[in-house]
Amino acid sequence: MWDIITNALPQLIAAGLKYTIPIAIISFLIGLVLALLTALVRISKKGGAFYVLKAIVRFYVWLFRSTPLLVQLFIVYFGLPYLKISGLAPEGIKLTPLVAGILTFSLNTGAYCSETMRAAILSIPKGQWEAAYSIGMTRALALRRIILPQAIRVSLPPLANSFISLVKDTSLAASITIVEMFEVSQQIAAQNYQPLVMYCLVAALYAVACSLLSWLQGYLEKVTSRYVSNAN
User: Fold this and answer.
1) How far apart (Å, rounded) are the C-alpha atoms in residues 171 and 178?
2) Which of 18, 50, 141, 190 is 20 to 30 Å from 124 by CA-CA measure?
3) Entry pTM
């Protein structure tokens, strides 16, 4: 058994460094940008035609929170090639497995994290806005310099949890032929006929990675809350 582990471990780690971690980081960063933009649109007080944009982002959030991530991956990678658009994509929308995976993970993360960010922004007392307006700040400046820094501290724990979940969810990328850690473990298990050993090994690697991220989350929470603690 130890020979199997020592032979498979370097391959699994290499797949994690080449695909699992980069996919998680890139998707999360793109998802955060989408989440922030979505949250800002939803809390905006603008009316008129802006309601159409609000309706679109509400539908986006509802769609990705109401359907399984695996189904979303299949639609983007296997389904879009059948979506033929005259003049734009007459042969369908064909994406590489990596692009399809990052796109799906980013959209899914953006939908979930947008609710976290929206709640964090709305949790800041209205007095903070009024104080900013009283010294001549615009809404955009107040948001950037006063509200968002506080909202980031509030939203840090749930956002960190979302990232940890995303690292584990990247295992679903194996379903669209991305050779990440779980896919490599399946390939090796098919060769050595030791699925229990291989799946336990890859599970242990995910556990180690998520444990390190949990420690980092705790450290960041202490750093961002040090002034609050001192004030109390």
Assistant:
1) 9
2) 50
3) 0.91
